[in-house]
Amino acid sequence: MIYIKKWLEHYGELFPVTDSQIEFFNKIGSGFNSPVKFLSVDCGTAELAQQLNEKNFDCTVTDTYKEFIDLLKVKTTNIEPKIKSFNLFPQDIGRYLGKNFFNIVYCGDYRVVFMRDKIYISKLMIDAKSLLTDNGFLIFDLINFTKFDFSKDIVELPTKSSSRATLRSWITKDKENVTYLLNQQVVTLNGKTIDEVKDEPITPISMESFKKFATDLGFSSIDFYSDYDMNPLNPESEKIVCVLRK
Question: Residue 210: is its pLDDT beyond 80?
Answer without folding.
Answer: yes
